[in-house]
Amino acid sequence: MFRIVAMIMAAGSSKRMNGRDKLLLPYKNKTVIEAVIEQFLDHRSIDEVVVVTSSDDIVSRVQHLPVRLVTGGDERQDSVVSGLTVLKPTDFVLIHDGARPFLSADALDRAIEAARQGEPFVLAVPVSDTLKIVADGMVVETPDRSEYWAAQTPQGAIVSDLVKAYQQAKTGGEKMTDDSSALERAGFSVAVVPGDHANRKLTTPEDMRLLCV
Q: What pLDDT was estimated at residue 18?
């Protein structure tokens, strides 16, 4: 049986947070990144937690935790590849945004259950807003929103499959916005696992109010 490893992506620059590192914001009497890490450490099915970061402040904050620290790259996909290099090809990795501290226990359990199947997956939720296709400031089309889902994390796959997918993306000169995109581009079938609408990512200063709820 393969190991299930959680890889927390914490190498972002928080450019839209007005200079504040969102992962070091206070949340539940600790920092955001500590709360995220501890949720995975506390799950009985997670065999190891890897944290990918380029921040000395984050390293200092989490080095007391039983995690493996890996230096991140310039782009998200570079950081993912850096994290993958320390894992076994047969490991199943769950890749989670360090800026998503609101992942519910139920959604994580569903992700773990998907991981046990050994097939690529993405946590996602149906889009609730009406969508518009726009060109030059004008609405071109209103697509059927029932066909659209918003991707979340964790997303997962066998390490060797993700390495292959990102190698192909690099060869093609493409930048992937998430891991499932890289897998799809490489020809892998990616299952959708129901997520949770509360599993939002901290992105702008307005999102900071969510930490106080």
A: 57
**What is the Cα–Cα distance from 199 to 151, expressed in whole angstroms?**
10
pLDDT in tens, 39-76: 999 999 999 999 999 999 999 999 999 999 999 998 99
Alpha helices in the chain (DSSP H): 32-41, 56-62, 76-84, 105-116, 159-171, 179-185
How confident is the prediction for the chain on average, in pLDDT? 93
CA-CA distance, 58 to 31, in Å (whole number)?
10
Q: Where does the chain show beta strands of DSSP type E?
A: 4-9, 26-27, 30-31, 48-53, 68-71, 92-97, 121-126, 133-135, 138-141, 149-158, 191-194
Q: Which of 188, 57, 43 is nearest to 104 (CA)?
A: 43
Structure tokens at 192: 């959708």
Phi, psi values for residue 51, rounded to 5°: -115, 120
Model's pTM, two decimal places? Answer: 0.93
The two tokens of residue 87 are 């894992």
Angle, helices 159-171/76-84, rounded to nearest 10 degrees: 140
In which order are the strands placed within the sheet that holds 191-194? 68-71, 48-53, 4-9, 92-97, 149-158, 121-126, 191-194
